[in-house]
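Re: [ENG-882] Designed sequences occasionally contain unexpected residues at chain ends

Forwarding the minimal case from QA. Structure tokens:
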């Protein structure tokens, strides 16, 4: 492995390590100020502030992931990622599979991230909404204020605070389901 390629891999692995430890402040230091994260097949582009805010969801939902490096070059690293979190576990959804490509700039910061979802969720984007429907129906009756806060207009708010509230709501829903059965 050439020195530039090794440096790119080290930068990406340090970023991912910080994410695994839910240290968003440290993770943000690996990102260029003008970093852009895009999602293959979707018209979404996130700036640094939006990336860190969205990663807060993973912290609040106690996200866990593993990865393996697929390829690396002087300034690009591609990984295969599998992830889950308490939110997905409580909905009994499978691991999320994705491929991520990181481009490293001359200042040794991540300049861009391309996220490409793979696996079952990539072929059926409504998987989460279908799994969520019974919990939402329950919450409309038992926790309408919380639901209104974390699911306005039927859209999940991806933030650290919202994730924690979703996990708590889903735990209450699961408990109610278990006491009925």
């Amino acid at each position: 492995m050439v020195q530039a390629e090794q440096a790119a891999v080290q930068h990406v692995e340090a970023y991912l390590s910080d994410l695994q430890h839910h240290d968003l402040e440290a993770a943000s230091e690996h990102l260029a100020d003008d970093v852009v994260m895009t999602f293959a097949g979707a018209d979404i582009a996130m700036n640094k502030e939006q990336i860190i805010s969205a990663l807060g969801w993973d912290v609040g939902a106690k996200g866990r992931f593993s990865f393996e490096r697929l390829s690396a070059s002087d300034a690009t690293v591609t990984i295969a990622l599998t992830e889950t979190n308490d939110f997905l576990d409580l909905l009994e959804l499978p691991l999320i599979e994705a491929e991520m490509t990181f481009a490293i700039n001359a200042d040794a910061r991540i300049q861009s991230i391309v996220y490409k979802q793979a696996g079952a969720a990539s072929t059926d984007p409504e998987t989460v909404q279908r799994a969520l429907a019974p919990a939402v129906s329950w919450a409309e009756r038992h926790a309408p204020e919380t639901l209104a806060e974390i699911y306005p207009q039927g859209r999940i708010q991806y933030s650290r605070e919202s994730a924690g509230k979703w996990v708590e709501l889903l735990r209450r829903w699961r408990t109610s389901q278990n006491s009925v059965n």
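QA comment: On inspection the terminal residues look reasonable. Residues 100 and 115 are 5 Å apart (CA to CA). Proposing we downgrade this to a documentation issue.
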